[in-house]
Amino acid sequence: LANNPTARRHKFWETQPVGQFGDVADVSLPDGAIEPPSPLSEVRADPYPLPAAFEWFTCDLDDDALLADLYALLAHNYVEDDENMFRFNYSPAFLRWALRPPSFFRAWHIGVRAKESKKLVAFISGVPARIRARDDVVRMAEINFLCVHKKLRSKRLAPVLIREVTRRVHLENIWQAAYTAGVVLPTPITTCRYWHRSLNPKKLIDVGFSRLGPRMTMSRTVRLYKLPDAPLTPGFRQMELRDVAAVTRLLRAYLARYVVAPDFDELDVEHWLLPQEDVVDSYLVESPETHEVTDFCSFYTLPSSVLNNANYSTLKAAYSYYNVAVKTPLQQLMNDALIVAKQKNYDVFNALDVMENEGFLKELKFGPGDGQLHYYLYNYRIRNGIKPSELGLVLL
Ligand code: NHW
Fold first, then answer.
1. Residue 2 has pLDDT above 50, yes or no
2. Whose CA is nearest to atom 55 of ligand 1?
3. What is the pLDDT of residues 42-62, one digit of tens each?
4. Are residues 335 and 272 in the same domain?
């Protein structure tokens, strides 16, 4: 507790194999798994008990009606900013993409519904991934979309969902996980900040996302954020299926520099980076002379609902994903990403201070946001943590 700045007890998290606040000073603890795997025969066979009115429900995302229910649960109950002005509005197509990567497990799409009405009231999901920590490539689950209906909050349902997803991950003989959260839990491997680049400053100011700077008028602000009509780098074009091998090579070589990063193969790249309308966009630079693919950038689409505004109901936001600048300067590459995002009518382009992003944020007129994003590993210790610039992992 001595090292926990908030000195808050975590009745659930204290029981879990995660770095504890009290261990921070203990330099004798080794990096790697905190506890060894158990024999599969010792993994609990039955789901954890739920309060009597509820039942577990494994979600089939092929089912459009179920997908619509999941979309609605999240659209009304998922993450909001501190002032409750905006709420993430992941689209149905995005959820299908995020939850069904290569070799996904249907059993890891876990709903809780009311026994009587069959209404979906809570959700948690995992997807399999290979994540490298230093030189150790580990099979992990990426956990996301933990959500409890607003009317069922603070009843300790979240720990039951987390225990149940953990059990189902263990049944696949996987013992580690990665996740992010805006809240501080025991204990982040690193803490990142979001930066925001206005593309449609007038709308962002109208909805209260940003404010007019001191001594700024609206027309000066609009001029400040103006971008060229088309990308500037010769050979800049959308990624296609035929580029998967080249992009995989670029990305693998690049991500090798980071302490924690995904270990992507071609199947992963095809799934995670091949463009899908309003889900994920990827661009590359193909050298006009050699036709070699030299650089790559990508962003995903995550709108937010604008709560309580008379003129607007959604913000269209692009989130920087994986970028690799080899021949083109990173700043120029990302400026082209901003230009295509503006062409496609996004209102704002967001990026974390991970990887080399510090190298373009200020120069390209991103401003720091007020929220932090903490990254966590389950059952894996990285002593002293890492810096955001040592992190090569972006979760959705
Ligand atoms: S982060 C987004 C999480 N979702 C939201 O913020 C949506 C809006 N909020 C809610 O729906 C991305 C509820 O407030 C939630 C909590 C459901 C968040 N992560 O049921 P109680 C992810 O999806 C702990 C982890 O009474 P509630 C990543 C909290 O510290 N733990 O609260 C998810 C406390 O434990 P403590 C969180 O407000 C990663 C306990 O929950 C948390 O009704 C999951 C209170 O429970 C969070 N974001 O529901 C972990 N928020 O010990 C995966 C609160 O402090 C771990 N808590 O007393 C790995 C598993 C797989 C391992 C495989 C080997």
1. no
2. 10
3. 999 999 999 999 999 999 999
4. yes
Measured between alpha carbons, how far is residue 395 from residues 52, 99, 230, 286 in Å?
34, 12, 29, 27
> How many angstroms does the Cα of residue 13 sit away from the middle of ligand 1?
10
If one residue of 13, 84, 90, 146 were mutated to test the ligand 1 pocket, choosing by the most ligand atoms within 8 A of its CB, it would be 146
| Closest CA to ligand 1's atom 16 | 158
Taking the CA of residue 12 as reference, the ligand 1 atom at the shortest distance is: 52
The domain that contains 133 carries what CATH number?
3.40.630.30
The answer to whether residues 86 and 30 belong to one domain is yes
CA-nearest residue for atom 28, ligand 1, is 144
Split at pLDDT 50, 70, 90, the class of 296 is: very high
pLDDT confidence of residue 7? 55
Domain boundary among 184, 202, 224: 184
396 is catalytic: yes
Please state the atom number of ligand 1 nearest to the C-alpha of residue 125. Answer: 23
- 96 has pLDDT over 50: yes
Whether residue 164 contacts residue 365, with contact meaning beta carbons closer than 8 Å, is answered with: no
- Angle (CA) 122-124-129 rounded to 5° is 170
Q: Are 22 and 8 in contact (CB under 8 A)?
A: no
- Average pLDDT (229-241) is 98
**What's the 158 CA to ligand 1 centre distance in angstroms?**
5
| Residues paired with residue 104 on neighbouring β-strands, in sequence order | none
Q: Are residues 281 and 230 in the same domain?
A: yes
Tell me how far the alpha carbon of residue 146 lies from the centroid of ligand 1, in angstroms: 6
Last residue of a domain, one of 165, 184, 203: 184
In the chain, pLDDT over 70 holds for what percent of residues? 98
How confident is the model at residue 1, as a pLDDT? Answer: 44
Q: What is the CATH number of the domain that holds 282?
A: 3.40.630.170
Alpha-helical segments (H) within 207-265 = 218-224, 244-255
* Tokens representing residue 33 in the block: 């798994």
Query: Which residue range forms the structural domain that includes residue 253?
Result: 191-390
125 and 248 within one domain: no
